[in-house]
User: Fold this.
Amino acid sequence: MRFLSEINSPADLRRLTIEDLQEVADEVRQFILETTSRVGGHTGASLGAVELAVAMHYVFDTPHDRLVWDVGHQAYAHKILTGRRDQLHTIKQYGGLSGFLRREESEYDTFGAGHASTSLSAALGMAIARDKKKDDFHVCALIGDASLAGGMAMEALNQAGHLKSRLVVLLNDNDMSIAPAVGALTRYLNRIKQAQSYHHLKEEIGDTLDSVPGVGHSLRRAAKSVKDAIAAAVLPGALVNELGFKYIGYVDGHNVPMLVRALEEAKKVNDGPVIVHALTTKGKGFPNPEKNYYAYHATGPYDIKTGAPIKSNKSAPPTYTDVFGEAMCELMARDDRIVALTAAMPDGTGVDKILAKFPDRAFDVGIAEQHAMTFCAGMACEGLKPVAAIYSTFLQRGFDQLIHDIFLQNLDVTIAMDRAGIVGADGPTHHGLLDIAYLRGYPNVVLMAPKDEAELRDMVHTAIQYKGPAALRYPRGNGIGVDISAPPKLLEIGKAEVLREGKDLAILAYGSMVMPSMKAAEKLAHEGIDAAVVNARFVKPLDKELILSLAGKFSLIFTVEEAYLAGGFGSAVLELLEENSALAKTHVIRMGVPDKIITHGDAKLLLAKYGLDSEGIFTKIIENRDIIEDSRSTKTRLKAIK
Ligand SMILES: Cc1ncc(C[n+]2csc(CCOP(=O)(O)OP(=O)(O)O)c2C)c(N)n1
Assistant:
């Protein structure tokens, strides 16, 4: 590495000549390949944005100038160039670098991210603050074409064009989301690309840029030449004229000198926002880039020569995601009112299988969770049975739409929340820990969580059959290996399942915590403690009858959930007991995720850290042994009195 080993900050990069930059980019790309082939990561997304990162840090005086990355999954080159090269191999691991951007991690990470389409709003906010403070720095937001189509980004575009604050937007257009990008904006961007031949356009822009006066010439003349550049580019109306943006492009997003020139031009626009439209290839440089586009976005470890994934030999049970996809296909074959929907996560949610099998009854709406909810509501109004498969964390985007459009109108929509709980390597922006709290406070909705993948099938069926809004949550990763060959069956709404009778205490577990609770109970038996275990199945409605009877029987009840404790399943149990004056004799201990930001890292490790595995549940119960002993002696005394 001729250059990279000497680049410890963007200032080092800026000491190089423009002619050296392409080689720097090549070295950065090689470094990403060598690292991600060992540890995995957002490989393809980051490989596609290498030259953009080099050019931005070269042109802008970072960190004085503010770079705002959308999502942040594509920012490995940015991390490498901003002093984090030697830690890149720790990315997404416990104690290591975050897979996204975090303000605490580096002064160059001006805005934390992980969810899409936030960069323009944040960058615009910074630009306006700069103007108010009469400060002088550039703000440049980098956003992908799929994220640009997200609702928030559209709202920011709308305001940016109106405010006329100085702002550079670098559009990383690779025609891809995680899956191929969808929607009318994608078509619009493609129209720009097709409108003139790439070569012709490059020359035209190049000529115009060449005619720009150097630094020190009047801004007016610079602005005029920018106008020329813009006029020379393809301007099919909407973005530039109607929204008040200037447009430079498109440029080859893998040609660093060209990107540098385009960004230098953009810097000179001082009377409003400007978009630099760069065309890139996702997974650029990935060995043997197959047609399998999902492989580009993120990878596990792979063979650096062939690109083939390095898989462990262990045969694992199917993932909850796969089981959901299969169950949906079975149910959709039986009932043509069922339609499926994903918001830009077809493979992540199992909707890819459904799209392949039922292309007319499945939709990828793009990064548009809010729209997805109300779109489902509309379909439900007309008698369809929409099932939206969505990550718990991304559903947060659609909160008001859930309440206002679905729950309030009691519409027949099913929400399948994948990645509910601690997701692991993706960290705090992606953990799905809030859904119980944010969903259960409103009437009409039924909320459930399966103990295993067979029950997931039953719950998908039950939720679809239920006449009204229903949501189910299930974790990331593999099922526990139970038989899933039986047809999905209907569960009684609000009925829990007693899995183990006991004499000393009751463990009420929700979803993914049921099986660890069973294991803990078995271990407790060896210690002479007899725990009943209940698979709660529903947090709304709770199995009131059963829980109140448990409270009458046991002086100690544990609730266990893979979610934030505040407002969660345990809170719901406490509320029920309080409403029924059943708390006086029963001690309730809630286990779940505490009121803390949960970092990234191996999910098993994080769950263990918060006592959310069989060992943790066992230990917590042993710690409260004195309550059990007390209750035993009270019972003995009472018996003696009788
Ligand atoms: C609100 C939200 N929904 C979904 C996602 C999942 N997600 C992460 S990256 C991505 C694709 C982004 O595509 P694009 O902006 O074009 O960038 P690229 O990966 O192609 O560089 C998606 C859908 C997310 N991060 N946030």
About this structure: The chain has a mean pLDDT of 92.
